[in-house]
Write a structure and sequence with these properties.
Layout: E1 2-7, E2 10-15, H1 16-45, H2 51-59, H3 61-79, H4 84-118, H5 129-159, H6 165-173, H7 176-185, H8 187-202, E3 210-213, E4 216-223, E5 227-232, E6 237-241, H9 244-247, E7 251-252, E8 260-268, H10 274-287, E9 296-303, E10 308-316, H11 319-340, H12 349-357, H13 360-363, H14 367-371
Antiparallel strand pairs: 1-2, 3-4, 3-7, 4-5, 5-6, 8-10, 9-10
Helix pairs in contact: 1-3, 2-4, 3-4, 4-5, 5-6, 5-8, 6-7, 10-11
Amino acid sequence: MDTAIWLGQTPFFLPSWLISLAIFAGAIALAIVAHRIVFAVVKRLVAGMDLFWRSLVSRTRGPTRFAVMTIAMGFGASVSPLSADQAALIRQVLLLCFIALIGWIATTALHIWTTVYLRRFKLDADDNLLARKHVTQTRILRRVGDILIVIIGVATMLMTFDSVRQYGVSLLASAGAAGLVVGLALQPVLKNIFAGIQLAVTQPIRIDDALLVEGEWGNVEEITSTYVVLRLWDWRRMILPLSYFIEKPFQNWTRDNAALIGTVMLHLDYETPIAALRAKVEEIAAASPLWDKRVVNVQVTDFGQSTMEVRILVSAKTAPRAFDLRCEVREKVVAFLQQEHPRALPRLRADTVSERAGSPGATARSPDMAAH
């Protein structure tokens, strides 16, 4: 359908698509100018506010510009010389774009809020229990929030189409045959999502927790919406699904606080002077910067046929420091016994009897043996 436009006294004919294109171009140009003016005003208004609002305005410049352009194109579609089907198609596309923009802005706002919120917590602090708690909770909930925003956005888009509206309702309400099929197909994913929510609330593990899982020791490096990355002591990575930490047992060495008691087990001869050993261990711990000055103890915990079991306890602020302190105590205790009390080290009792005899005849062979 063509439209006649009168220029002076002479009619000038233009195709309707060209007129519509010009209207859309003008609407977009006006939207860009209006957005630039409004954005400058809003940026000045939030200049004195906190970091969240300043970051939100700065990061959403692109999405808000596109949103204003979408609204302007919607008005342009209503005044353009388009057929009913063409106008309906354009309005449908613009509506989908607007829903996607709302989800984009919501995701951006969520990420900015979590980033600003986590700035107050430092994971590299010595006592980082509170920081690990908030970082873990916030990161898990942020990923769950991202997934929910996508699901709600896709469901809302489907609900704008009459022919597939029931699928959108099923996606939101988890009802109907289509919802059941999707639910069964996505059962592992949904299982981990709900496990992630449960982990965020109950927090059996946190970021940087020291865990013993499947016989491997390491720290929690990352918690995603579906799996956990465990950084092992030798820098390997163990990947475990979130549901693992809900269904199976594991050891968390830093559940309530980061401090740990390290254990050093020694098997020593019965002639070991325990009092001297206890004094030396206390001296080693007091001189070590790894000790937190809370626990140091030496105890005889068991007897064997030829040795006794001695347990040394020393505490440290974190699991890595406790491990290093245990190694330091082992090395220095062994060096002390070698230099000051060599008879305390395990040895065969036959050798001990011979050394106690101390006479040449004690180790000499008998005449009968010499005869043979």
